[in-house]
Request: fold
Amino acid sequence: MTNLSKNDRTGRQAGMRTPPVLSPQDWEAARQELLVKEKAQTRARDALAAERRRMPWMAVEKDYEFNGPEGRVSLLDLFEGRRQLIVYRAFFEPGVFGWPDHACRGCSMVADQVAHVAHLNARDTTLVFVSRAPQADIARLKAQMGWEIPWFTVTDSFDADFGVDEWHGTNVFYRDGDRLFRTYFLNNRGDEQMGGTWNYLDITPLGRQEVWEDSPEGYPQTPTYKWWNWHDSYVEGAAPDKKWVAVSDAGEAAFRNQQGSAKP
Reply:
């Protein structure tokens, strides 16, 4: 028989002061009350992302080199021809707990949460991880953990110059031709929210690139939802699928009607 000394038959831990149990109607009223605050938080997050898109840039003056699966590459090469680059510094190297079998536990959790990069690529954005471990060890670790994120080896002062030599962090860069700029940086708990496509795009200078966003004049924007695709079906320069356009239009119209008829 299961030991119930710490947990009763309801699954609640002894001593927990749980919330009240309500009827379906009262529960829905409580949810709607909280939803007002949640929507306010969403609007505040969108406003912060809009402010982030207007944050000044810093020119990258030095040349940086990395080792990749196919040899030496530059920071410019990491963009893979796209305009935006997100670089997460993961700790996998001698001296890090877990070496050589695993990377840092926290960095590994970040890697586990990364969405398929094809969606970022479709928004002119490349995501890479970098560490100081040799490529052979990185390849082994990726195969072991099932990670497909592009992952490169730091060979110079990149980590020290961009604040990630002693702690994890995410740097964002923009490419204008061959000129590179650092546009944003986050670390500590800021990295906790990373992994999803939307959160990554929200820290980039171009954002999600959808028409509803508050972006500076001239920034690329396309109709909301229309660029979405299966991760194995993106084709560069292809027009949105007509059937998906119809489906998304209908869904958005239904949502707007629902919002319009909702009680204030």
The chain has eight helices and eight strands. The radius of gyration is 22 Å.
